[in-house]
Design brief:
The complex is a heterodimer of chains A (374) and B (276). Helix content of chain A is 25%, strand content 33%. Chain A has 9 helices and 20 strands. The relative contact order of chain A is 0.11. In chain B, 74% of the residues lie in helices and 0% in strands. The radius of gyration of chain B is 23 Å and the shape is globular. The chains are: A alpha+beta (374), B mainly alpha (276).
Amino acid sequence: MAEVKLSHIKKSYGDVEIVKDFDLDIRDKEFMVFVGPSGCGKSTTLRMIAGLEDITGGDLLIGGRRVNNVSPKDRDIAMVFQNYALYPHMTVYENMAFSLKLRHLAKGEIQKKVGEAARVLQLESLLGRKPKELSGGQRQRVAMGRALVRNPSVFLLDEPLSNLDAKLRVSMRTEIARLHQRLQTTMIYVTHDQTEAMTLGDRIVVMNDGIIQQCGTPMELYQHPVNQFVAGFIGNPPMNFFSVELMENEGRLFASSESILIEVPQQQADILRAAGEKEIVFGIRPEAIHDAAMLLSENIDIAARGTVEVVELLGAETLLHVRCGRELIVASMPSGKSYHPGDTIELVFTTDRMHAFRKADGRSLLYGKLGGAA
Amino acid sequence: MQFKTSTKKHLAVHAALILGAVTMLVPFLWMVITSLKTLAESTMVPPTLWPETLQWSNYADVWNSLPFAAFYANTFGMILFRVIGSVFFSATAAYAFARIEFPGRNVLFGLVLVTMMIPGQLFLIPQYEIVARLGAVDSLFALVLPGIVSAFGTFLLRQFFLGIPKELEEAAVLDGCSRWQIFWHVMLPLTRSGLIALSIFTALFAWKDLMWPLIVNTSLDKMPLASGLASLQGQYSTNFPQLMAGSMIAIWPMLILFVLFQKQFIQGVAGTGSKN
């Protein structure tokens, strides 16, 4: 039993409120990811769960027990830090065994537990080394091992991959996912990298300004963002946003700006009409934008015409930055056709996958109103 | 052209360093030479550069005329207890000033720093008063007591503690360490070079402490080396060769210590200025 329940958690430093009314239930064995920009309060929340920060208000329950005033060592948690926080004067073995020694475990048992963790993390040959003799990836594994030997109910990971290079980050990401599957322990993972969040999390909490913006599975967040912030934060490359006016014409609803004209599909149009907004922020993901010249159908509506400014070849896909008047649209095209800066292009939008946000506060006008939304 | 400028710069630096080294070495060599002269030769004008005959007997004479065994014992005792005391108290105080939030922390640390800025002579009378009221005048305890706390040591070690990442402490908290265990198992081992530097400084200051032992102790057999040697200096006349021979006898433990811990000594000096 290791659910973590954060009930109206608050954190303030003087008059400055860092975390505001954080309410979340993390299920047993769940991999929960807190994601958000720097300073959004995600690490502070994690540190409150760890007991490294006092909780200003609300209740924190781990395994059904209120732990607001319980010392970190008695919360049955282990934490992996961003800079690993390995004790430099101790060997890998001593680092991993340290917490067990403090708990006065028998030497044989310590050896067994450290040996087991070292085997899982492929650290057996490194046990006699000091941290300074290890590479970044090895240090990261030792930090994981140190947490692992304690067999905690909850793992807390604070941006554990931030200090690694891009390639190693990908392989360690896989290792962490594998470890979670193997251990079946509740994990709470903090990152500012939405790719890590999407690939690792059973559920993701997107935070901004100390507030939970949205909590859901990666696909829920991707397909049904609750507001413009989540829509822009989740997904790489990010969603395109345009300020558009809504216009009725012969019973059909159009969204238009200086350089874009889109017919809103019937289901979305009904919702937008009911919302009564005249101006909205229209959102569309790069992969929902197509090159008209590549489509076989003749009955297509051109949403925008523009000039290719930048071409980014990514192998499986090509990212086009297309200038359409004042708008810069990023479109993801399948590789095959070659594009060059200066090419003119006609763009077609898969409008079924459109998003619409209220201009005043960025809230989604379609969230929860279309089939499949959370 | 650039090579020439660089060579000139190197030559200038080396010349300055050689001049500094010679300036430091000459008094030492003069002490060695004087310790091997006769009394007459040592006061001769103009002075002789090298003794006519080497007077090794100066060493035997000074050894027999003063209780060197007691001097050594007192000096080593004083050094040992002062080092233990100053390392313990400085480390605990420095850790508190560096890592524990408590009301008035900065003001108190400021007061510690202020004591470093006041001339040490000003403390002599109050310190003597304290020792006298404890009934400890003319004892090893009197030699040790004022040296067991060190504002300099607190300042030095605080710099070392500040340089240790906070996450290490937090990791130790999660591992189950109490405050004392964090200090003992994590923080103290990581300030090893600072502790060695402080030990060397404390030992050095204790070894060359002249005034305090002369004030607080009166019996010759309760004196450490530096103060004991001062008894060779008369009001009207001084036997310089014997004084220098005595100094030579007194100096070798410190020389060995310096040679052994040269790296830590320099690191300690650098650490006081360069760290946060």
